[in-house]
Amino acid sequence: MKTMLSGIKPSGQLHLGSYIGAIKQFVTYQEDYHMFVFIANLHCITLPITPAELTDNLRDCLAFYLACGLDPERSTIFLQTDVKEHAQLGFILSCQTYLGELNRMTQYKDKAQGKNRNDVLTAGFYTYPTLMAADILLYNADYVPVGDDQKQHVELTRDIAERVNKRFGQIFSVPEPVITKVGARIMALDNPAKKMSKSEHNTKGTIFLKDEPAAIRKKVMSAVTDMVNKVSYDPVNQPGISNLLTIYAALEGITPQEAEAKFSSLQYGAFKSAVADRIIEEFAPIQARYREIVGSGDLDRILAKGAEKARPIAAGTLKTIQKAIGLDIF
Ligand code: AQP
C-alpha cells in the first residue's frame, strides 16, 4: 500500500476551504492509502499567535479531523511536536536548501512585501518550507494531497529529496503532490480574487466549520457576484458565481459544469440559497459529532496512539540520514 501524508496548520479556525481542499480528501484517501495526518503545530508559531488561541485551535483541529470521518484505527493521526524528529530533520534539511530557493517561495514573497517586514517576519517563517519537507520525507510519503497554494512547497520538497539522494545515497522517496480536481482553491466569498483563509480578518468572506446555519446562510447570500445575471461557470468573467458553483460541485462530488447545468435557469438569489442549503446539510452531522468529541477524554488517547505509531518510522529515517551525512559515530 502506498503512503500518503498531509496535515493542517491550525493557525486559526478551520473553514470550508480547509474542509474541501484538505480534510474531505484525507477521509477519502484513508480507504486506499497508508495515511499519515498530522496537526502542524510548529508551523503555527511561524507567525504571531497567542498561547490560548493556539491550544484551542489544536484541540479543534483534532476534533474536526475525527468529526469529518478520519479514523484513528486506519490513519495515523498525530501532533507534530509529539514526534521530535520533525524539528531535527527540519534543521538538517535547512542545511541542504539554498537561500535562493526559499526566496522564491510565493508565500514568503507575498509576506515579504508587507510593511515592517524585518520586524514582523521571523527566521522560522522563512525556513518553514524546509520543516514542511521534513514532515513529508520522514515518512517517505509517496503522495501529498494539498491545495493549490501548497504545491510549490511539495515541489521544493522533491528538489531537496533528490539533492540529498544524489549527495548521500538513496535515502528519501520523492513525493508527488496530489491536487484535487474540484476545489483546490476555494475563494473568499466577499472577494473571489483572494483565497478563503484562516488568517483573513474579514470573516464575511470565510465560512468556518463552526459557523451556525444562520451565519452560513448570511455569508453565502451576501457573497460577491456580478452583473451578468446568469449562473454559469466562467472563473475569469464570473469569479464569484464560479466559486459558489465550485463549492457546490465539490460537496456534491460533481464537476462545476454539472453544477452549472443544474442551476443555469435560476436567479442568483435562488442559486445562492441552494448553495447555502448544501453547505448547511454537509456541516450538520460534522458539527454534531464535533460537539460530542471535543469535550470527551478521547482526544489525548488518540494523539498518544498516533505518536506511538509515527515515532519509530520517523526515528528510523532520521537515523539513516544522520549516518549518511556523518553525524553519527555508531
Ligand atoms: N481556500 C482553500 N481552498 C482549498 N484548499 C485550501 N487549503 C487551505 N485553504 C484552502 C488547503 O488546506 C491544506 C491545509 O492548509 P493549512 O491550513 O495548513 O495552510 P494554508 O493553506 O496556509 O491555510 P489558510 O487557511 O490560508 O491559513 P493561513 O491564513 O494561516 O495562511 C493545504 O493543503 C491547503 O492548500
TrEMBL record:
Family under the similarity heading: Belongs to the class-I aminoacyl-tRNA synthetase family.
Renumbered to this chain, motif 'KMSKS' region spans 195-199
Identify the InterPro entries for this entry: aa-tRNA-synth_Ic (IPR002305), Rossmann-like_a/b/a_fold (IPR014729), Trp-tRNA-ligase (IPR002306), Trp-tRNA-ligase_bac-type (IPR024109), Trp-tRNA_synthetase (IPR050203)
Question: What is a single cellular component term in the Gene Ontology annotation?
Answer: cytosol
Gene3D superfamilies assigned to the protein according to its UniProt record, in alphabetical order: HUPs (3.40.50.620), Tyrosyl-Transfer RNA Synthetase (1.10.240.10)
The gene from which this protein is expressed is: trpS
Compartment list: Cytoplasm
What SUPFAM superfamilies does the database record attribute to this sequence? Nucleotidylyl transferase
Please give the organism. Answer: Parasphaerochaeta coccoides (strain ATCC BAA-1237 / DSM 17374 / SPN1)
Reactions it catalyzes: tRNA(Trp) + L-tryptophan + ATP = L-tryptophyl-tRNA(Trp) + AMP + diphosphate + H(+)
**GO molecular function annotation:** ATP binding; tryptophan-tRNA ligase activity
Q: What is this protein called?
A: Tryptophan--tRNA ligase
Domain of life of the native organism: Bacteria
Q: Where does the chain bind L-tryptophan?
A: D135
Q: Does the keyword Nucleotide-binding apply?
A: yes
